[in-house]
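Please predict the structure of the following assembly.
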Amino acid sequence: MRANILNEMTVRFPSLSENERFARLAVSGFISSLDPAVDELSEIKTAVSEAVTNCIVHAYRDTVGEIVLQAKLLEGKRVYIRIKDKGCGISDIEQAKTPLFTTAPEEERAGLGFAIMESFTDRLKVVSRPGKGTTVTMVRSLKTRKASDGDKNKGD
Amino acid sequence: MPCKLFYDAESRSLLAELSGDIDHCSAKGLREPVDKEIMTRLPLHLILDFSGVGFMDSSGIGLIIGRYKLMNDMGGDLLITDPCPEVRKIMELAGVGRLCRVIQSGHRSFSGGVKL
C-alpha cells in the first residue's frame, strides 16, 4: 500500500456472536475522525458485520476462534479494513461470492455477505486457504464533504 | 424487547415492530417470537415494521426471506413498512421487493386496525 498511513488499530476478539456488534462499533469509532456521511458509515458497518459474521458462522462453525480486525486510515480519506481468521477456509472463493450461495441455509443465511461487501466497498480482496483461514481486505474511499477536507497533507 | 407483536383479529393481521440492530446475533431473538405467533394465530397478513431498526446486515434479509416463506406456506402474505434509507438500500440490493411490498406508511404502527 503506497498511501501514507495516518492512523491504525488492531483488535482481537473471540468469534462470539455478540462481537459482531462490537466489531461494527469499533470500526465506526475508529473512522469517526473522518466525519463520514451517515450512508457511508452505515455501509462500512454493514461490510464489517458481514465479514465478521462469516468468521463466526462459517470459519469457526461450532467452535470459537480468534478474529483479528485491523483498520487503517490512509491518505485521501481512504479506510482500509482487514478481517482475519484461522478457521476452516474457503475452497472455492468464486462460489462463495456468488449471490444467494450459502453453506448455512439452516441458519437462515441469505448468501449475500460477499455481495454486500463488494457493493459497499471500492476494493474487496479475499485470500483463503482451506484448513488455514481466510483474510478479507476491504478499502473504501469516503466522500470529501468540505473543500478543506481535500488537503491531504495535514500532519499526523 | 427487540420485537413487539400486535394481532388484529378482524383483519387477521400480525404486526411485528422490530427494533435495534438486526445482525446474526439478534436475528434469532426476533425470529422465534414472530414464528411462534404466526403458528399460533395463523394470520393472513404479516407486517414487519422496520421503523425502529437503525442497522441491518444480510441477516435481516435472511429473516425476511424466512418469514416470507413461512407466510407463503401458511397461505398468507408479507408487508414491510418504514425501513430507514440505509436499511432500505440493503433490501433493494437483495431484491426484497420481488417477494413483498415495501412501503413507507408515514405513520407509526397500529394496534388493531391496519388497512391493507
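The longest helix of chain B spans residues 24-41. The beta strands of chain B are 3-8, 13-22, 45-56, 77-81, 101-103.
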